[in-house]
Amino acid sequence: MADVLSGVASPADVRALPEAALPGLCEALREAIITTCGRVGGHLGASLGAVELVVALHRVFHTPQDALLFDVGHQAYAHKLLTGRRDRMHTLRQAGGIAPFLDPRESHHDALAAGHACTAISAALGLLAGRRQLGHPGHVVAVVGDGALTGGLSFEGLNNAGGSPLPLVVVLNDNQMSISANVGAIPALLRTRNARAFFESLGFTYLGPVDGHDLGALTRALREAKASSCPVVVHALTKKGRGFPPAEADEQTRGHAMGPYEWRDGKLVRSRGGRPTFSEAFAQVLGEALERDPRVVAVTPAMLEGSALTGLKARFPDRVHDVGIAEQHAVTFCAGLAAAGAKPVCVIYSTFLQRAYDQVVHDVCLPGLPVVFAVDRAGLVGADGATHQGAYDVSFLRPLPGLTQWAPMVGEDLAPMLATALQASGPSVLRFPRGTLPDLPPELAHAEPEVTGPSAPAVTPAHGQPAPDALAVSGARWLKRVPGSRLTLVTLGPLGLSALEAARNEPDWSVLDARRAWPLDEAALLEAAAGGHVVVAEEGTVRGGLGSAVLELYAAAGIAPRVKLLGMPDVFLPHGDARVQRTQLGLDAAGLRHAGHALLGEERR
Ligand SMILES: Cc1ncc(C[n+]2csc(CCOP(=O)(O)OP(=O)(O)O)c2C)c(N)n1
Ligand SMILES: CC(=O)[C@@H](O)[C@H](O)COP(=O)(O)O
Ligand SMILES: [Mg+2]
Predict the structure, then answer these.
(1) How far is residue 385's CA from residue 307's CA, in Å, rounded to a whole number?
(2) 30: enclosing H helix or E strand
(3) Whole-angstrom distance, CA of residue 596 vs CA of residue 605
(4) Count H helices, E strands: the chain?
(5) Which cofactor does it need (predicted)?
(6) Is the CB of 321 under 6 A from ligand 1?
(7) What residues have a C-beta under 5 A from ligand 3, the ion?
(8) Geometric angle at alpha carbon 234, from 231 and 235, rounded to 5°
(9) Which of 175, 185, 531, 584 is the most exposed place for a label (fewest CB within 10 A)?
(10) Which ligand 2 atom is nearest residue 72's CA?
(11) Strand, helix or coil at 65?
(12) Ligand 2 atom nearest residue 434's Cα
């Protein structure tokens, strides 16, 4: 089977194959996808479901003269395999290896880079308009999932395209799944006769529905679309996870994205991490808040699985809302909930919150509504790479008046921080990273929290159960406080633990966990500067982050300690192992120790 594939070095080879060879090609593609994902993990389910679609697209359209834009790009492993990347697929999502999504810098068969959902229709229409303006021939095809049709940006594109004379081809890859089961009215409509009426009323010619695993039917529909002189939608019905029994059987996600696994004797063997993740720990404390206070509501834009909310959705079906891939709506929906007196917690990945910036500014912060943003995947994300790094949330949220930004260092911080945020009168953020919870270091396990700043008012239990204490203090936390210390390591989030380790054998270094990126605990940070040397470390871009805020504070106070800022650099960091990247960026104990000594003018590490 693999032989068919080894003879395919480019899409021209796909077109040269006799029709009879195509089922074998699809089988070989599936085999390659299953093997690759087994070894290195990846977006298995969507890619398996789109195999026939990708083959048919390459039979009908000629990339790169014609452009194929895959929404997100997570379903396009077959496209990668057919466009000269087969020999490097084993490096998928690893440092220096094949990218997790599509990128023209990797292949001229990739029309545009992406990783976030709902961009394909707008980008394809722009590409087509630009090409036509510059006299370039060629067709442009946007391949979008049914999940993408839960997002407003797709509709902005459809509205523009349907009213334009340009012959944009939209291929709707409808598997009735987002990451979890798709939600809302549109996916339901897609499986009725009204799907035709819907797209036709938007100005598109509608072709379908077509069996998305029937190569003949797909090819005929795509040829018809290619011949069209006006915008056209090809509606293909597919099955996510197709051809891999464990994925097909997984009702929750159909194997949307999987870590490495082995497929032995018909059984899937996977290793499970031992410690809970930050997401799981947050979901646990959120569940306690939901139980305790009937006003609490959780909202996720299509990330029930990744945010570990599936259990809560089952327990509180009416108070845990999956609103689709609709970050803007999620935030403004939360604004409405808060205005009604509910206590919304918007659980959202840092990278996806970027899309809802105006909603955070205009709909939540401006009216000062008490929405809690649980910003997950804040910091390095690893294999998903540049499009998904949680690099910017601190910097883009810090200027917003009235928004408090918390960063738990350890799992034990989550409950009091959430309690504090839930009883605040304005908006709050809790940012936490991708990955497992760190251990509480021995020096903190039994210590009374050492605190600065004014104490927060007590939380009133609303539902008969004792509420966890809100933070006894609203300020920074000294992890190590040495009177007369020469240098202070100031950190945000779990980096405090690395700083503590870095300072362990340094008798005159202090360590301050800022706990908030904004507002600053000014008294503690001014005290940190007293020794004349401050290292500020955060897992976010150094531009405009906590470090910048600390420098602003020192400038305003008219003091000039020597300050070193550590964080994510001024580039879009690619995919790789987050632990390795952390070390490379100096965001581990050794790096912090080195930065401290360098600042003090000492050479030793
Ligand atoms: C803006 C944004 N929000 C959330 C995601 C996470 N995400 C990636 S794929 C996906 C589901 C997409 O569903 P669909 O478009 O139907 O494609 P399928 O996976 O079913 O092929 C989601 C929610 C994302 N990439 N971008
Ligand atoms: C493609 C996409 O955006 C998601 O599937 C993402 O890859 C999930 O990332 P996590 O594994 O961090 O949930
Ligand atoms: Mg789908």
Answers:
(1) 18
(2) helix 22-40
(3) 9
(4) 25, 19
(5) thiamine diphosphate; Mg(2+)
(6) no
(7) 145-147, 175, 177
(8) 135
(9) 185
(10) 1
(11) coil
(12) 12
The set of residues, in sequence order, having a beta carbon less than 8 Å from that of 1 and lying 6+ positions away, is: 24, 27, 28, 31
* Separation CA 355–CA 273 (nearest Å): 31
Residues whose CB falls within 8 Å of the CB of residue 403, separated by 6 or more in sequence, listed in order? 360, 365, 397, 426, 427, 428, 429, 518
- The encoded tokens of residue 5 equal 């594939």
CATH architecture of 477-599: 3-Layer(aba) Sandwich (3.40)
Class for the domain spanning 278-437? alpha beta
DSSP letter (8 states) at residue 440: P
State the amino acid at position 212 in one-letter form. Answer: G
Q: Give the whole-angstrom CA distance, residue 212 versus residue 236.
A: 5
The Å distance, Cα 200 to ligand 1 centre, comes to: 25
439: which 2 tokens?
Answer: 């251990």
Q: Cβ(209)–Cβ(183) under 8 Å?
A: no
What the block records as the tokens of 476 is 């920074």
Q: Which residues pair with 322 in a beta bridge?
A: 300
Q: Is 12 helix (H, G, I), strand (E, B) or coil?
A: helix
- CA separation, residue 342 to residues 190, 298, 422, 457 (Å): 33, 10, 10, 20
* Residue 537, pLDDT score: 98
Q: Does domain 2-264 have CATH number 3.40.50.970?
A: yes
Structure tokens at 214: 């029937």
pTM tops 0.80: yes
Distances (CA, A) of 1 to 15, 25, 183, 532: 18, 7, 38, 67
8 Å CB contact between 120 and 114 = yes
List the structure tokens of 86: 């087969």
> Whole-angstrom distance between the N-terminal and C-terminal Cα of the chain?
54
In this predicted model, what pLDDT tens digit does every residue of 257-297 receive, in sequence order? 888 887 777 777 877 668 999 999 999 999 999 999 999 99
In angstroms, the CA 170 to CA 164 distance is 14
Q: Among 405, 380, 392, which Cα is nearest to 352's?
A: 392
Q: Which token pair is 307?
A: 């945010």
Q: Looking at the chain, how many residues does it have?
A: 605
Residue ranges per structural domain of the chain:
2-264, 278-437, 477-599
SS3 208: strand
**In ligand 1, which atom is closest to the CA atom of 74?**
9
| Tokens at 437, concatenated | 């919870």
CB 433 within 8 A of CB 493: yes
Q: 2-264 with 278-437: one CATH topology? A: yes
What would the DSSP string read from start to end of 296-333? EEEEESS-TTTTT-HHHHHH-TTTEEE--S-HHHHHHH
- Ramachandran sector of residue 586 (left: φ over 0; alpha: ψ -120 to 50; beta: rest): left
What per-residue confidence (pLDDT) applies to 453? 35
* Positions of the chain with pLDDT lower than 50, given as ranges: 448-464, 605
Please name which ligand lies nearest the alpha carbon of 180.
1
Which H/E stretch holds residue 597? helix 589-599
pLDDT digits over 479-500, tens only? Answer: 999 999 999 999 999 999 999 9
Cα 98 to Cα 110: distance, rounded to the nearest angstrom: 13
Pair of tokens at residue 106:
């990797």
Is the Cβ atom of 434 under 6 angstroms away from ligand 2? yes
b/e sequence 34-64, b meaning 16+ C-beta within 10 Å: bebbbebbbbbbbbbbbbbbbbbbbbbbebe
Q: Is the CB of 384 under 6 A from ligand 2?
A: yes
